[in-house]
């Protein structure tokens, strides 16, 4: 039985590694973030009213950090001298996996600043219970 579980764990790890797609530049990272924002409906703003800005990170950091900000212009209104940060993403360079502080777990503080996995959202804790995630600010549940 132990061999069965070991083989199962190894096959799951290999499947996850096979799904990993390296992100080799900031343009790829921004594209992944844009797709995730739209897919998960993380903002009520139109895409042209959102800016995706690379945050300064260490040269060899494992992640790109992308700040998602309001884009204030003639089409989108707002003070053109400001670009409030809505939320941020981390894009793992080796795997392309995404994390964001735009969501919060029901068992944590909404404004903790913690980055959680998204696309897909890891909903199960180590104890086996399923967690509910919400979009920060709107309280909309993510299923």
What would you say this structure looks like, in words?
The chain contains 2 helices and 8 strands, in the order H-H-E-E-E-E-E-E-E-E. With 143 residues, the chain is an alpha+beta fold.
Instruction: Return Rg in Å.
Output: 17 Å
* Intertermini distance: 34 Å
**Averaging pLDDT over every residue, what do you get?**
82
As a percent range, the share of helical residues equals 10-25%
Strand order of the largest sheet: 1-2-3-4-6
Number of helices: 2
**SSE succession:** HHEEEEEEEE
Which structural class do the helices and strands define?
A: alpha+beta
**What global shape is seen?**
globular
In short:
The chain has helices at residues 2-19, 26-39; strands spanning 50-54, 63-70, 85-92, 98-100, 103-105, 116-118, 133-135, 141-142. With 143 residues, it is an alpha+beta fold. The protein is globular.
Strand and helix map with partners:
Layout: H1 2-19, H2 26-39, E1 50-54, E2 63-70, E3 85-92, E4 98-100, E5 103-105, E6 116-118, E7 133-135, E8 141-142
Antiparallel strand pairs: 1-2, 2-3, 3-4, 4-6, 5-7, 7-8
């Amino acid at each position: 039985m132990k061999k069965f579980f070991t083989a199962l764990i190894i096959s799951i790890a290999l499947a996850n590694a096979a799904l990993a797609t390296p992100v080799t530049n900031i343009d790829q990272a921004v594209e992944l973030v844009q797709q995730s924002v739209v897919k998960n409906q993380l903002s009520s703003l139109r895409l042209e009213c959102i800016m995706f800005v690379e945050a300064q990170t260490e040269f060899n950091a494992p992640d790109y950090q992308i700040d998602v900000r309001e884009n204030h212009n003639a089409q989108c209104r707002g003070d053109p001298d400001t670009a409030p940060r809505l939320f941020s993403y981390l894009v793992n360079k080796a795997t392309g996996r995404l994390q964001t502080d735009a969501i919060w777990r029901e068992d944590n503080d909404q404004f903790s600043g913690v980055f959680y996995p998204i696309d897909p959202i890891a909903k199960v804790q180590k104890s086996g219970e399923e967690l509910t995630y919400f979009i920060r600010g709107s309280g909309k549940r993510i299923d």
